[in-house]
Amino acid sequence: MKMSRIATALAALMIWSSVGTPRVQAMIVPSHAVTAASVQDREADLQTVRASLENKVIRQRLADLGLTQEQIDTRLGRMDNQQIHQLAMQIEKQNPAGDAVVGILVIAILVVLLIYLIQRV
């Protein structure tokens, strides 16, 4: 009797877990979709690299090494997608906060403003 309850419970659990399970289908992704994604990734990585190159300290260090802006742009243009991505990842690793500091500052200002408005009422 105890085994039949366990068997019934397991059967009910199996039926319940299979209901609503979506069918999964796999297919080959067209190459133009992959190419478009890699172009977008490259542009995002280039933007990260260029944003870091706008830093005064980095710009001055590169100038001290004798590199002009044209030389930097030429070297960036010769780098392939993987090299650009590696460089962008190293930059993000050095500056993990990124724009989060601005977000935290905005949230802090909103909290202070909210507290001020609550105390006024």
* Category from helices, strands and their pairing: mainly alpha
Largest sheet: none
Number of helices: 6
First-to-last CA distance: 68 Å
Q: What is the mean pLDDT?
A: 77
Helix content: over 70%
Q: What is the string of SSEs from the N terminus onward?
A: HHHHHH
- Given the C-alpha coordinates, what overall shape results? flat
- The residue ranges in which pLDDT falls below 50 over 5 or more consecutive positions are none
Question: How does this structure look, described?
Answer:
This protein is an all-alpha fold and 121 residues long. The protein has one domain (31-120). It contains six helices and no strands. The chain has helices at residues 2-18, 31-53, 56-64, 69-78, 81-94, 100-120. The longest helix is centred in the middle third of the chain and has 23 residues, at 31-53. It is flat and about 85 Å long.
